[in-house]
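Help! Submission page says 'invalid entity' but I think these are all valid:
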Amino acid sequence: MEFKVTHRAGDCRARAGIIKTPHGSFETPVFMPVGTQGSVKALSPEDLTDADASIILANTYHLYLRPGAHLIRRLGGLHRFMNWKGAILTDSGGFQVYSLARLREISERGVVFRSHIDGSKHLIGPEEAIDIQEALGADIIMAFDECTPYPADYDYVLKSVGLTSLWARRCMDHRKREDQALFGIVQGGMYKDLREKSASELVAMNFDGYALGGLSVGEDAVTRQRVIDDVIDFLPATAPVYLMGVGKPEDLVEAVRRGVDMFDCVMPTRNARNGALFTTTGRLNIKNARYAEDDRPIDERCNCYTCANYSRAYLRHLFMAREILAYRLNSIHNISYYCSLMSRMRSAIKDNNFDHFCSEFYTLKQNRID
Amino acid sequence: MEFKVTHRAGDCRARAGIIKTPHGSFETPVFMPVGTQGSVKALSPEDLTDADASIILANTYHLYLRPGAHLIRRLGGLHRFMNWKGAILTDSGGFQVYSLARLREISERGVVFRSHIDGSKHLIGPEEAIDIQEALGADIIMAFDECTPYPADYDYVLKSVGLTSLWARRCMDHRKREDQALFGIVQGGMYKDLREKSASELVAMNFDGYALGGLSVGEDAVTRQRVIDDVIDFLPATAPVYLMGVGKPEDLVEAVRRGVDMFDCVMPTRNARNGALFTTTGRLNIKNARYAEDDRPIDERCNCYTCANYSRAYLRHLFMAREILAYRLNSIHNISYYCSLMSRMRSAIKDNNFDHFCSEFYTLKQNRID
């Protein structure tokens, strides 16, 4: 993997760049749709490409449990298995073990947990996380970390940061594939000095990129922005920075402003399946009776397949009738919205008017809240 | 609408033809995927076109209840509402009132029933069925009929045929749009003389086409084939014959052999959503553990998008993980299978070797039954 910063905004820390992977290059800041189980829910690879997605995220924890990483390797790796020709990033499994699995027991060896699918018992430590991710064959893989709970007291977080650093080292030592980039995950809760400790220990190991973990776990937006501001200072300007699991459009704007390059979040696809659609003038809920005879597209400023071909009235009908097509059309729109938002931010950075972009973004967005 | 028979098989009553509608021409025999609520479940219009579908069926009963036929008319009609550029046939609502609605009361005026969605009370008679179908704007509409239950005694069916003929006359008299073809529906249960009575009364009214109704309601295949043989003799050779709601691939083959031109059935899409996939060598159930590491497409003889891009192993994984994409990919395949089967039958008719096609079809099919 290669990363190159091509532009820096004059008025903030936002930056634009290019990441080159074995499965294509893409510009940053970038949004990665989430394909948890080897499928971005309701979408085909072509839908993703048409929506301007160039890299997707897949979940190590889910694919390890079902259908199994070694099965996927035998079938030619995750790209071939799911017919996705673009880049893939797999997460470390740490967050899902923390948020989904049952009966977790954490030790230096790793985490013993029970599957959320069938209750079976498993161990994933740093070596297993690397083995699984090498079997899946993503372009970017993540070091195994402990996703610190929130809130957590200082002593717990201090120990947790130590464990994440120890595991990061073992991930580095264990990896065999040279065609995959390996990112470290900065933990440290909401404590500035622990974030610094975590970041500096990881930076000393010279990862290909750095993720901000342990965010979007219940903290407020101001706290999150403060942590981002803190951590960015401790990271090398030459490596990509990835904010994991965040978030709302305004969270992405605020994080890009602070220097973040990569994002993933289930929000656009999950909201789509609940009928909540993103537009340049705020969110709308397609269930609302006011759209029953509304012949307009979801967003008149949007160029996606859904907006080019379907009215709010039809989308509302599909959703109320629980038609499967509703989930796909809504997801195409929301992913297009997120990818277009990133594209507009990249243009603003290149044109050196990111601040102007932000004020337009917030002004437009407040025009309607459903 | 224009219908022209272009070829007749030398060895049976199978025939090939062309139907011309305001939304394109298509060859017969033809299979119409079912878009009950204004969407062929899990598929987009492009998916249908790619699968070689040229005409779809939509359900009058469902669209009348939700979102409402007049709403669809105000939004430009069903073609525009659902973004389908091909032809559409709407059924009369008679079968759904019979199979889905509650508390039916049948009189000469029409049928009073309660909605399966919210229990609300409605009346649909021949005039209402025509009004609804004119509002929807399909290319081919159906006369309102009483779908005779099965089994039913002679006297009941005799009265029922009388009612269907009365309603057919009122449909004819009530219609206003000249751009829609109107088909009559032959009833008469399993009684040859009542089928003859029904057919001859409808033929006297000079419909644009004739449907065989009241089949696929529980009778066995041999009885159904006998009824088809009976009725075909009573219909003019110049009008298209449509067998409603049938059926399995072998049912289509047997009906084409007997002279039927048009079909619709939920089987390919419903089975797809249950993981049952049609292949030239029989049905397979994608849930089966034997497909867990099977790198082959569903059917090596199939050219559909699903077979070109995805393995049985991936499709099984998607299905087991309940991914929405599973329903779409499976439906694309099954609709492609049905459309390809019709295309192969048309070629066999044109090449004057329909009997040979049939023996190949049955031989191949018996290679594997899951």
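Support: the input was valid. A stray whitespace character was the problem, and the output above is from the cleaned input. Chain B touches chain A through 35 residues (CB under 8 Å).
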